[in-house]
Amino acid sequence: ALIDYTRAIHIRPDVARYYLYRGKLLLEMGQLDLASKHIRFASVLNTNSQGSGSFALQKAVVQSFLHNYDDAIFVLDRAAGLDPSPSQYILLGKTYLKAKRYSEAVDNFEKALMYLRRCRSTAIPISGSGEMDYKSDLYNLGKNPKVLRQEMPKSAAEVYFLIGKCHVESGNYTSALEALNSAIRIHPAYAEAYFQRGLVRIWVKSQRPLLDFNRALAYNPDYFQAYLTRAAYFGMRGRYSKAMFNCNEALRIQPNSVRAYLYRGALKYEIKNYELGVEDLSSAIKLDPLCSIAYYNRAVCYQHLKKQKRALNDYGIVLLLEKELNQRVLLNRGLLYYQSEDFNNALVDFKLAVKDSPDNALLYHTLGLCYHRNNELKKALESLTKAMSLKEHFTQAYISRGNVYVSLNSSEGYKKSKRDYCRALHYDPTNLTAHTNLGIALQSYGKMN
What is the band of 131 on the pLDDT scale with cuts at 50, 70, 90? Predict the structure, then answer.
């Protein structure tokens, strides 16, 4: 297809739509820069071949695609002022929505709704300033759902849906629910509105989000996102079999969905079916070799399967893919090195983790244990003492430091180890490890009684 469009441009380089078609295809191929150049060139061709007034709308669409939202809004605002119509205000509202200027978007969508009204008996109310009082009239419409359905065309449902999206982005969930309810009253089979309302009901902790997802799927059985969301909903509630069923349905619709494989792989991890989890995560990696989450989750599965080399390999890939150091990856990989008695590499990871989180007492405790196993006793004492300063009554740190003092193999070390074990027992009198280690230290020090 790309070659055919290229040949068409070569034959007729003055036809703007050929550049638009080729730009759209390049966009689908992920070549955003080249696609933008084609659309800009098409814009220039159209400007030269048409008058500026007739080309205003197309120019605004191009500017919006290029994320020049201020320019697009300026053009559309002038066009709406010269020729006010529902389509002008809807496009202007969508541009405000893309620019994340939600209040202005809602204002323009509400203006579009007033133009869409099919009320023959009542004129559009005018305020004292001479402007259309669309907000008060919309309020009166919303009070009577039957009137709303009769007076508003089906196309108004999309406008209410967009208003709902604006309120969702603004965090105003109550208004979002009202707008989505209006969209559904006008268009009772509006699957996307049911889906969006279900999401809002999750955020406001309503008891009925699943009903909306089910309705969305009833009206659109191939609604991919609804299946994935329902899978996440069931997964959060521990209903893993139903969650996996929804992942299977999502993959039936989009067999090359990385997210669906990620979800299903995570669910299989939750039911401790690590081998099948690895299969799904490997499928996700095959589809997207740069998906760091898939590598991380697969490494965790390998870790549970005791396949340490493969887990270490995946953790290393995650660190290479991500721009910033991932503390969880460093900690997990450090623990794997520690279990493999590769203390030098473990120390490297734990040091990086501590540098990223200098107030984490548990990390300092783990670093101290690693120094101890690597026979760097002075550094072990420093790390464990730092852990105690960050966390009061850190019983395990006192026991670990006592063990380091014992390793010093000196009378002073035995005295300090006894003190640390006694402090651990003071904070936790039932700690069996502290009792055992204290007994061993006293025996070594000659205190047989």
Answer: very low
DSSP state for residue 370 in the 8-state scheme: H
Q: CA triplet 256, 202, 156: central angle to 5 degrees? A: 80
What does the alpha-carbon distance between residue 184 and residue 194 come to, in Å, rounded to a whole number?
7
Taking only the tens place, the pLDDT of each residue in 267-290 is: 999 999 999 999 999 999 999 999
pTM of the full predicted structure?
0.75
Of the given ranges (29-33, 249-253, 338-342), which has the lowest mean pLDDT?
A: 29-33
Helix or strand or coil: residue 323? coil
CB 45 within 8 Å of CB 29: no
Contact call for residues 284 and 253 (beta carbons, < 8 A):
no
The answer to whether 384 touches 364, Cβ cutoff 8 Å, is: yes
CA dihedral 303, 306, 310, 316 (to 10 degrees): 40
3 state DSSP class of 389: helix
Gap between the Cα atoms of 15 and 12, Å rounded: 6
Question: Using CA atoms, how far apart are residues 230 and 242, in angstroms rounded to an integer?
Answer: 9
Torsion angles phi and psi, residue 305, rounded to 5: -85, 5
Measured distance CA(262)–CA(293) in Å, rounded:
8
> What CA–CA distance (Å, rounded) separates 319 from 325?
6
**C-alpha dist (Å) from residue 261 to 195, 219, 294:** 22, 25, 9
* Contact (Cβ atoms closer than 8 angstroms) between residue 418 and residue 438: yes
Contact assessment for residue 96 and residue 104, using Cβ atoms and an 8 Å cutoff: yes
CA 128 centroid distance within chain: 47
Sign of the dihedral defined by the CA atoms of residues 330, 331, 336, 338, in that order: positive
How far apart, in Å, do the first and last CA atoms of the chain sit?
90
Cα 323–283–315 angle (5° rounding)? 35
